[in-house]
């Protein structure tokens, strides 16, 4: 399986990093070795002094598809979860400066902790889904999917122009404002509509 991620999908996060508002979605990948599950602790790597949390709604793909039309995109995922797109911001800044690929900053081991998944039918309205991240009990990021520049179906249509989606693939759909550094000893807990989905420690 593979993990596809959308960058710069929330306007408030674009402005906090002084990034340009993209004309089309920014897409990048993480390998399956980035997955961290079952509330396992995240071991802080020593190659970075600035690992940032980015809380994101995650879609789980349920069948093979490519060149998916936006109006059929909803048929390609029926479960939703939440994850953290860990980013070595110090490394990413250097790579961005030189126009180099982001993999070392984005796709390293355990850089994609994910929750369990719930059926879409569990939620009233995917276009207005509240989610948030707490660190040590304090809310640090809060988002609503209505703030996305590209919604879930538009993301699937765009990604599938370039990458065939396969059963079990995951899509990280972008992060709202409030990204910041994590420290050893922190506990990260993420919620969808107030329901705790994932909770793990940074070690
Ligand atoms: Zn992200």
Keywords:
203 residues; alpha+beta; Fumarylacetoacetate hydrolase, domain 2; six-stranded mixed beta sheet; four-stranded antiparallel beta sheet; 4 helices; 15 strands; 33% strand; binds zinc ion
Give structural notes.
The protein has 203 residues and is an alpha+beta fold. The chain has one domain: Fumarylacetoacetate hydrolase, domain 2 (Alpha-Beta Complex), CATH 3.90.850.10. The chain has four helices and 15 strands. Strands 2-1-12-5-6-9 form a six-stranded mixed β-sheet, with helices on one face. The chain is globular. The mean pLDDT is 96. Bound molecules: zinc ion.
Quick recap of the structure?
The protein contains 4 helices and 15 strands. With 203 residues, it is of the alpha+beta class.
Q: What does the main sheet amount to?
A: 6 strands, mixed
The helix content, as a percent range, equals 10-25%
Question: Which spans of ≥5 residues are poorly predicted at pLDDT below 50?
Answer: none
Question: What is the H/E string?
Answer: EHEEEEEEHHEEEEHEEEE
- Secondary-structure-derived class: alpha+beta
| CATH superfamily caption | Fumarylacetoacetase-like, C-terminal domain
The CATH architecture term is: Alpha-Beta Complex
How many domains make up the 3D coordinates?
Answer: 1
> What is the strand tally?
15
